[in-house]
């Protein structure tokens, strides 16, 4: 097991099997976020976080489109089983303690998006020698950049005044989402020979 992608091929590209699994995971996650953003948004906006969420629909879709085209795909029968568990994990989970159903759903979605954008950092898996001009490498670095921007929208909502009375419930939901998504990501990486042990201080 390695802590990074590899071994790289003679052109310093990430192995296609690793590309396939990582891209499939990211497409599943970001595709789910795009779909849920689209269905969660109201017909008329009355809060700043709704305006930002609208922009995120298109940014998440862009990430999916980028990965589809930048990845060197290869057949992998194991992906069917893993993808089913991923899709189940993205299922909407509104924060039950919030009485407003629209806000409860949006908050639950924000905890999922926060876990994906803050906890999943595929560019950190690239070894120093990876070809900087390879489409997959460039895509992962682009996603890293976009995720840091997208994260600000989740913070805007989760730290908002309208959630102050439900702070404990929101914190618990956020922690639960992070643990769940981290476990799925670790398992996906382990299936292609990448270990998160050293990056998680021994708690993979």
Give me the number of helical elements: 6
Distance between the termini: 13 Å
The biggest beta sheet is recorded as: none
Amount of beta strand: under 5%
Radius of gyration: 17 Å
User: Which architecture per CATH?
Assistant: Up-down Bundle
Return residue spans where pLDDT drops below 50 for at least 5 consecutive residues.
Answer: none
Extended strand count:
0
CATH topology: Heme Oxygenase, Chain A
Q: If you had to describe this structure to a student in words, what would you say it looks like?
A:
The chain is an all-alpha fold and 204 residues long. The longest helix is centred in the N-terminal third of the chain and has 25 residues, at 16-40. It starts with 15 loop residues before the first helix and ends in a 14-residue tail after the last helix. The chain has helices at 16-40, 48-70, 78-89, 101-119, 135-158, 167-190.
